[in-house]
Amino acid sequence: MLDREFYHGGSMGTRSSEGQWDLPRAREGGVGAFFLSVFIPEEYYPSRFETKQSLRRVDHALRQLEMNRDQVELALNADDIERIRAQGKMAAVLDIEGSYDLDGDLGVLRDLHRLGLRSAQLSAHNWNQNYADSCCSKPEWNGLTAHGREVIREMNRLGMVINVSHSSDETISQAIDVSDVPVVATHHGLRSVNNIPRNMPDWLLKKLAAKGGVIGIQIGSEFNYPREYAYITAERKKTFWDTSSIPDRVRGKTIYQVDELVAPQFPMLGAHVPDSVMMSVDDWVAVVDRAINLIGEDHVGIGSDFDGGPTLARGMRDTRDLPMITEAMQRRGYSEERIDKFWGGNLLRVFRQITQEQS
Hints:
Elements: H1 3-8, H2 23-28, E1 33-40, H3 50-67, E2 72-74, H4 78-86, E3 90-98, H5 106-115, E4 117-121, H6 146-158, E5 161-163, H7 169-178, E6 184-188, H8 202-210, E7 214-218, H9 221-224, H10 226-236, H11 246-250, H12 255-262, H13 281-295, E8 300-304, H14 323-331, H15 336-356
Parallel strand pairs: 1-3, 2-3, 3-4, 4-5, 6-7, 7-8
């Protein structure tokens, strides 16, 4: 989120004809609270611009929140979410996707926490951190290093969500073991549905749930519908996590030149695919159903990833069409309680536990 505004200007409070998300469309879709994810792409890593870019993006996010304070407010804990919602506004939990610092410096982490960051991805998007392996790069550490465990313990102490989406299986498993509180996969899929490294195997999903964690099912077809994934991959001639060309493209560039290089990809849209291979909303809810049958309704939620590139189900335009998912769940006979847990109840429970257990 906010990539469009950072690179091209404008306000998230203004309805846009581009992308999949802004505050007016989110409100129409029934959104009351959300992870406001600032994204640090791999293009900023080779020259070690990731920390500067994190500070720029957090500053931009906070200015966007202030600009739209009549519609949305930053939430630092679960009580904030409930208070903000009672005022008729949307609540935003600040999250970072990608690396805030490849070395995982604890001082930088604490600085970002003071600015309002309450959730951070454990691996550097699809690249390894210098302390944690990613899903989609050659393993360097077989999971976490000793310092990676220190990062997790400090996040526990601060009361921050440990976001394991994009992490390797070993990193996720070890993070669950080290953390005193549940971990969350904010936008993930099931490897038993689509066998790609970006998705989670059943044994690991069960381990995450046993510790009280929640998986957010990513809303796109490339995670959840093998036929459409195969079609899109063939059209692109590479997997969606392939970043092998980045070092050569950014070599010698300033951070502002990197901005210019990556700006055209935002907002990051889904692929155009023919109806004959397109996932339906019911197909997508079938994946949610599989996860619930595997680990229970207390551990599964929405993952969305709007403007992060998901190819939406047939008939879905953007965040306005989230009610189509509820309708598909009702067709499956889901109770109102189960639907409420999926739409945020489970994440709110875990967020309350994480933010209230800080020392």
